[in-house]
Amino acid sequence: MSATSYATIDRSRLAELTAREETHLNAETKGSGRMFERAQKSLSSGVASSYQLRDPWPIYLERGEGAYVWDVDGNRMIDYHNGFGSMVQGHAHPAITKAVTERISKGTHFAAPTEDAVVVAEELQRRWGLPLWRYVNSGSEATMDAIRIARAHTGRDTIMKIFGSYHGHHDYVMVSIGVPYGQIGDRDNLASLPYGEGIPQSVANMTVPVPFNDIDAMESRILRLIREDRKPACVIMEAAMMNLGVILPEPGYLEAVRELTRQHGILLIVDEVKTGICIAPGGATSKYGLEPDLVTLAKALGGGLPSGAIGGTEEALSTVTNGKVYQVGTYNGNPLVMAAARANLLEVMTADAYAHLDALNEHLLKGCEAVIARYNLPGYAVGIGSKGCVTFSPSKVVDYESFKANQDGEVSDLAWLYNMNRGIFMTPGREEEWTLSITHTLEDCDQFIRVFDEMARDLTS
Ligand SMILES: Cc1ncc(COP(=O)(O)O)c(C=O)c1O
User: Which of these is catalytic: 271, 293, 399, 408?
Assistant: First the structure.
C-alpha cells in the first residue's frame, strides 16, 4: 500500500479529541492529582524515577492482581504496562507470593549465597545455553557489569551500541538516545551524544553508535575504529529493538552481526533486559538462535522484585572467574529475589505460559491489523512473544532514524489517552510497547481492540 492511499488524519480533529480525552482523564484521576500535590513536597517532581513523570500528574497506583491494576481513585484497569514489561507473570501470582512469603520468615538478606541462587543459575543455563551466571539488581547494573567484563576481556575501552537503543541509566550507555530527528546526523558517522546532563563527554566518546539493521554501517564503523586504534571491546544491542515500540531485526542482520563481531574478536552482548523472560523461555537468544558472548537479564526475571543477571561463555566470564574483574554487589543474589525468581522460572513461566502469550499476542496483533485496515490508518501492528505495539507510521520503521522521521507521535499520545480512559493501563511515552501477562485473556485483548477501533473511528469520521 502506498503512503498516499492512507486515510488523512485531520489535525484539528486530533487536537480536539486529545483535549477532550485529557479533560476526561484528569477528571477521573483527581486522587492522583492530590497525591501529586503531596508527593512533590518530598519526592523530586513527585515520582521515584523520571520515567514515571506525566503531565499534569502521574497516575498513582494502589494495587494489582492478575491482569488488573487499581489506581488511587479506585479505577480498575487491565494492565498492559506491566511495570515496563516486568510483570509478565501478572500481579501477585500465587506461586511467587507463596515463595516470597515462605522466604521472608526465614531471613531476607545475608550477602551470602543460598541454594535458590544456584537453582536459578542452573535454570538460566538451561534456557540460554550459557554456562556461567552472576546476579545484579537491575538492568542498568547488568549492562554496566557486562561492559566492564567485555573491556577487561579485550583490554579495550571503546564500545559500540545501536543508535537510539536504551540499555539503562549509567554513563557508558546513556549515549545517543532520545535525539531529535534533525540532530541525528550522518548515519555513517553517528555522534556520541550524552543523554541528559551530568554525563562527561569524554565518557560518551567511548561509546560509538551505529544504526540498527544496517550491517554495512556497522562494518565500516568498526573498520574505521580499527584504523583509529579504537577497536571496540563489545557491541551491545537488543536483538529486537524494544524502546521504539518494537523494531524487529531484518532477516540475516543478527547473524551478520555475530559473524562480524566474531571475525574481529569483539564480544557480542545481547541485552535481554526486556526480551529475556518475556518473548520465549530462552529469550531472543533462543528465539533467533543467537550465540552471544554475554547476555543481560533483569525486569521480568524477579517476578516483580528488583533483579538482574549476566550470563556468559566461560571465556567471556573468565576475568570474573579468575578474580581480575570485581563483579560485586551487597544485594546480588538476594534470597528474597532468588526465591521469587526460582518460582517464576520453574512454576510460572512454563512452556504452556509461553504458548498462551503467543496465542494472546497473535490475537491482539491480528485484531489491531484489522482495525488499521478497516479505517485505512497509516500504521501497522508488530510484536513478538508478550510484547507488541501499533506503530503509527506510513512506512516500515527499521531504525531510530526511520522511527523519528515517520512515527506519528500525536496519534500515539491519543491512543494512550483512549486506553487510559477506557480501562486499559498502558505504558506511557511514544516509544513504549505493551507487555501481556499470562493472566490476560482473549477477552482482555478484545477490549484493547475495541478501544483502538473506537479511536480509529472517531479520528477518521
Ligand atoms: C534493554 C534495556 N536494557 C537495560 C535497561 C535498564 O534496566 P533498569 O531500568 O532495570 O535499570 C532497560 C530498561 O528499560 C532496557 O529496556
Answer: 271
Q: Which one from 274, 299, 387, 404 is the annotated catalytic residue?
A: 299
Please determine, for residue 3, whether its predicted confidence score (pLDDT) is greater than 70: no
Pocket test for ligand 1, best of 84, 166, 237 (most atoms within 8 A of CB): 166
- The pLDDT-based confidence of 1 (bands split at 50, 70, 90) is very low
Verify whether residue 299 is a known catalytic residue. Answer: yes
DSSP state of 273: T
Last residue of a domain, one of 297, 327, 348: 348
- Quick one: pLDDT band at residue 61, thresholds 50, 70, 90? very high
Give me ligand 1 centre to Cα 340, in Å: 19
Q: In which domain, by residue range, is 105 found?
A: 94-348
88 within a domain of the structure (yes/no): no
| Same domain assignment for residues 27 and 108 | no
Distance 140 CA to ligand 1 centre (A): 6
Do 317 and 364 share a domain, yes or no?
Answer: no
Domains in the chain: how many in total? 2
pLDDT exceeds cutoff 90 at 143: yes
- Residue 166 CB–ligand 1 contact under 6 Å: yes
Task: Check whether residue 219 and residue 367 sit in a common domain.
Answer: no
Side by side, the strands of the sheet bearing 61-65 are 61-65, 68-71, 76-79, 424-425
Whether residue 199 is contained in a domain is answered as yes
- Taking CA 430 as the corner, what is the angle to CA 1 and CA 180, rounded to the nearest 5 degrees? 90
| Shared-domain flag, residues 384 and 445 | yes
Rounded-to-integer distance, Cα 404 and Cα 184, Å: 9
**139 close to ligand 1 (CB < 6 Angstrom):** yes
Give pLDDT tens digits for 207-264: 999 999 999 999 999 999 999 999 999 999 999 999 999 999 999 999 999 999 999 9
| Nearest protein Cα to ligand 1, atom 8 | 139
Residues 283 and 357 in one domain: no
Do residue 296 and residue 425 come from a single domain? no
On whether residue 133 sits in a domain, the answer given is: yes
Nearest CA owner, ligand 1 atom 3: 167
The pLDDT of 308-332, averaged and rounded, is 98
Backbone angles phi, psi at 281, to 5 degrees: -55, -40
Q: Is residue 157 part of a domain?
A: yes
Last residue of a domain, one of 314, 348, 382: 348
- 396-435: pLDDT as tens digits: 999 999 999 999 999 999 999 999 999 999 988 889 999 9
How would you label 220-247 residue by residue, b for 16+ Cβ within 10 Å and e otherwise? ebbeebeeeeebbbbbbbbbbbbbbbbb
Q: In terms of domains, do 340 and 358 share one?
A: no
pTM greater than the 0.70 cutoff: yes
Strands of 324-421, DSSP E: 380-384, 387-391
| 167 Cβ inside 6 Å of ligand 1 | yes
